[in-house]
């Protein structure tokens, strides 16, 4: 599979390494849902910088990953949307709610830290 | 003038090839960013329609160039059962099989010209074109001519 998935503490980081077929996108969704459960991860970062195209199928799959992970207790941050891809998504009018995005990995981790810290405070 | 490129579409892996070919042709013709990405995204949608709804078809990419402008014509062709209601298929709220109905209206917004020819006998052909004037001035003149 053209995605490298690794664990860093409570987080799972999935780096997409090349353009993905639809089948590979669905495999990624499955793999991430599994990993969040297996390792009790609190957060997921998906690096999409290698994706040349984010069309309706990929956008829907990303949303579905976010919603699935949320039901499993994890927040998701998408990083690295290419500028041209961002323009195409806007012109296409793809609905990205409730995607959280960050510019790079460091920013994504900082965002997840804030999100999961909030949970910890709420939980006493 | 370069030749057309044909990509047979039978599985979702062929979408990756079709997108890459479309992007490469747009770049060879000199399309500025972000156009190659817009074209590749539109190709992805019409090619996926073939895989999901019919299972077999092809994408033909044709370059065109004349003195004033250049472009890419994308033809997505299948001999499936056709689209029952073409008008509805390009509306934003239409939900076909397995989709949110985003594909065709989205692809249309990414391209300049967009046409669907569909019937139960001859299948479906989507023809869409992205084109550019060779210079900004030509583009402004054309715009003024259209308004007049």
What this model shows, in words?
The complex is a heterodimer of chains A (124) and B (148). Chain A has 124 residues and is of the alpha/beta class. Chain A has a single domain (3-118), classed as STAS domain (Transcription Regulator spoIIAA), CATH 3.30.750. In chain A, 50% of the residues lie in helices and 19% in strands. A five-stranded mixed β-sheet of chain A has the order 1-2-3-4-5, sandwiched between helices. In chain A, helix 2 links the parallel strand 3 and strand 4 (75-79). Chain A is globular. With 148 residues, chain B is an alpha+beta fold. Chain B has one domain (5-147): 2-Layer Sandwich (Heat Shock Protein 90), CATH 3.30.565. In chain B, strand 4 and strand 5 (123-133) form a beta hairpin. The radius of gyration of chain B is 16 Å and the shape is globular. The A-B interface holds A 19-23, 52-57, 60, 82-85, 87-88, 91-94 and B 12-13, 15-16, 19-20, 23, 33-34, 36-38, 40-41, 44-45, 48, 51, 92, 99-100, 102-103, 106-107, 109-110.
By oligomeric state, this entry counts as heterodimer
Largest sheet of chain B: 5 strands, antiparallel
CATH-level-2 architecture of chain A: 2-Layer Sandwich
Helix/strand order of chain B:
EHHEEHHEEH
Distance between the termini of chain A: 40 Å
Helix/strand class of chain B: alpha+beta
Mean pLDDT of chain A: 90
Indicate the proportion of strand residues of chain A. Answer: 15-25%
Compute the number of strand runs of chain B: 5
The overall pLDDT average of chain B reads 87
Q: For the record, what CATH class of chain A applies?
A: Alpha Beta
